[in-house]
Amino acid sequence: MRRTVEFPGPSSEQRAEGGRGGVGVRQQEPLRTEFTFELPRGYVDESGTVHRTGVMRLATARDELVPLRDDRVRENSAYLSVILISRVVTRIGTVEDIHPGVIEDLFASDLAFLQDFYRRVNAEGHTRAAVTCPACDEEFAVNLAGGRLGES
Hints:
The protein is an alpha+beta fold. The chain contains six helices and five strands. The strands form two sheets. It has a three-stranded antiparallel beta sheet with strand order 1-2-3. A two-stranded antiparallel ribbon has the order 4-5. Strand 4 and strand 5 form a beta hairpin. The longest helix has 17 residues, at 108-124. The radius of gyration is 19 Å and the shape is globular. The two termini are 32 Å apart.
């Protein structure tokens, strides 16, 4: 299930009038339902090809409920994240058939990255993190979705 939904912001008339009697209605950004990412190590497929970039979509209530009925989760609650991640990751590299077996074959650091990425996009709605430079104490935001370490 792939879809990108855009909810329009206020009309130009609403912005000119200040919205519904309010002051300074800000135009909302379209709702993002898919987020790209870059795995720290990468998924190695059966032919030995390494896939690093991918796409995760927002989770639905069903995505979070269905795995709870899975026997593998009932036997081992840690397996919940494997099934949940396999439901919301739509692509890793050229691999589009993402199932629990693919997620099981990820390196532990990549699974941890996807778990954190899932939390960020579904709970916080973005992939940015606020950080502080240890040398100069300047605060800035970094995008955790992509790029290799040291790149901006």
